[in-house]
């Protein structure tokens, strides 16, 4: 059963609805608000909530420090329980490096270490609390048993190197989706980051990338287009026999960022039968609002970082860091952000954060544009994601609450939270069984 706090939501909704000093009207409105929250709670309990993109740090998968504890990480079992998040897709992420034998080898080792960490969680650390799912039936059976569900996605196909047999190795380790690039062109395809300077390596998919798409179809692994370039996405749709997903992207019409999908790409997704997992990443939700706040809070973050013996780095600066320095910074980044946010709350007229309402605006837009059956939900937690109101897994209920406030039914919310994504997984796996 899912448990979560609604007192703050009740207070906010009850007070915000008061339009005139009529005690009877106020009481009626408050009762309506209570009824709405209760309806949202019931829906949230009934549906399977699934987040397709949660990054991990292998330091949080040890015998002494792990997801059975309420760590600083945005996702862990206590936070999943508190917010009613049923399914977390843990991400095997590898940053882009040189297209060399050495680079591929290091990336492969990194990827395997993350697979091993996830397996350690479900097999050794918390087998009674969470279980690995490989199919939609697994998801439902595990969820019905009362356990949380772990699934695995790969962010960046770079660790495959030039050995296509690694695709099947990763599939056998539990991977059920993979993107072919991240921030930088891989040996498999171009990245969206090529837009910045209009420099491309493959002008879409490489020959090896085309073979990888076919291999993913053969195995039943979903193709993720969240980081690849638009031309690469076009190639993937043309080659793939199965529908595709965007594991963590939003609508470019509302936020003009190369990580989001423009209206033409959304139409491709609709025709392909795929699903776009709307992402709660502030810079991809409302760039202007996020930039104003980031500019205002930068000096606060720098001061806090200095006070704890660290240095604050903007995202644009992190690419210049060594892996060791980057890892060290990520260990304290969340703490710095949290402390800076607390400080900002004490300052008058401080620019607001991108919030859950801004996030659901993207869901609304894509539902109207391509149909509800092609839209889903993701956070990018522990990879930079999170908005005010859904800042970690413990606040997952607030997304359902916002959807209920906007008039979505339980059936529609079920599809957004998990039904649409699991339908695509079923389709992909069914096509893999065809000759």
Can you offer a commentary on this structure?
The protein has three domains: 1-46; 48-286 and 355-432, Metal-dependent hydrolases (TIM Barrel, Alpha-Beta Barrel), CATH 3.20.20.140; 293-353, no CATH class. Helix content is 49%, strand content 10%. It has 16 helices and nine strands.
Overview features:
3 domains; TIM Barrel; alpha/beta; 16 helices; 435 residues; three-stranded parallel β-sheet; 9 strands
Quick structural overview:
By secondary structure, the chain is α/β, with parallel strands linked by helices.
Question: What is the end-to-end distance?
Answer: 42 Å
Series of secondary-structure elements, N-terminal to C-terminal: HHEHEHEHEHEHEHEHEHHHHHEHH
CATH superfamily of the largest domain: Metal-dependent hydrolases
Counting DSSP E segments of at least 2 residues, the number of strands comes to 9
Class from helix and strand fractions: alpha/beta
Number of structural domains: 3
- Sheet-strand content, in percent, reads 5-15%
Treating each run of at least 4 consecutive H or I residues as one helix, how many helices?
Answer: 16
Query: Could you say which overall geometry the principal axes of the C-alpha atoms support?
Result: globular
| CATH 2nd-level architecture of the largest domain | Alpha-Beta Barrel
Calculate Rg over CA atoms: 21 Å
Q: Spans of 5+ residues with little confidence (pLDDT < 50)?
A: 1-25
Mean pLDDT: 93
